[in-house]
Amino acid sequence: MENVHRFRDLNKTCPKDFYPLPRIDQLVDSTSDCELLSMMDASQGYHQIMLAPEDRKKVSFITSKGTFCYVAMLFGLKNAGATYQRLMDKIFRPQIGRNVEVYVDDMLVKSKKAEEHVKDLEETFSVLRKYKLKLNPAKCASEYKVVAS
Question: What is the pTM of this model?
């Protein structure tokens, strides 16, 4: 049986992080002049971000086997989405708008020329490796050809 812990009280006491999410319409528009796209999804995205050691006690829980605390960020935490988006914006800053777009745990590698796509993917994979972020292969799709309407 999976333990599910709710953090209503913790979320009530935390100030809201108003970090903005990208606008989907702008992300879609940014692909209009691209020849190839690859979509990627982070594997258990939020769980790849470690909590600061001093914050782990804030997400502790008690079971019949003892008291435990989470070491990674949880989906149910109030500011998890904003924290994740901020991280992705920071690590992909040199690429965003040029050959990558990021919406929380979804990444889109885009190439204006098909022959640039492998290089763009390699650059993205290099960033993911540097920060030890993993992808979910089942939710990744590569090399979609863009057809102009």
Answer: 0.80
